[in-house]
């Protein structure tokens, strides 16, 4: 039997700065993927979503492309509400 070897990724994630940078990028990716999927599920365009959420279409596009990291919770809540979702906070260990 092979021994479980530590992966390169798991070693890299032990470095606090690298892990923080990875987590930030991963969270942007997740938000982008969620928004794209939810828009497809609701058959709604960027312009229509922006109009209903009362935000700029640029904000929607920036979230979808991962370019923004500074969207307010209010705006994000407005966007997700239009799509039939709500924000929830969950404690992580």
Question: What key phrases describe this protein's structure?
Answer:
93 residues; mainly alpha; 434 Repressor (Amino-terminal Domain)
How would you describe this protein?
It is a single chain. The protein is an all-alpha fold. It has a single domain, classed as 434 Repressor (Amino-terminal Domain) (Orthogonal Bundle). Helices cover 63% and strands 0% of the residues. The chain contains 5 helices and no strands. It has helices spanning 8-12, 16-42, 46-53, 57-65, 73-82. Helix 2 packs across helix 4 (57-65), helix 3 (46-53) crosses helix 4 (57-65) and helix 3 crosses helix 5. The longest helix has 27 residues, at 16-42. The protein starts with 7 loop residues before the first helix and ends in an 11-residue tail after the last helix.
Report Rg. 17 Å
User: What letter string, H or E per element, gives the SSE order?
Assistant: HHHHH
**Main β-sheet description:** none
CATH classification class: Mainly Alpha
DSSP helix fraction? 55-70%
Task: Give the terminus-to-terminus CA distance.
Answer: 32 Å
Quaternary state, please?
single chain
Q: Rough shape?
A: elongated
Mean pLDDT: 88
How many structural domains are formed by the residues? 1
Compile the SSE list and pairings.
Blueprint (H helix, E strand, L loop, with lengths): L7 H5 L3 H27 L3 H8 L3 H9 L7 H10 L11
Helix pairs in contact: 2-4, 3-4, 3-5
Structure at a glance:
With 93 residues, the chain is mostly helical. The protein is built from 5 helices and no strands.
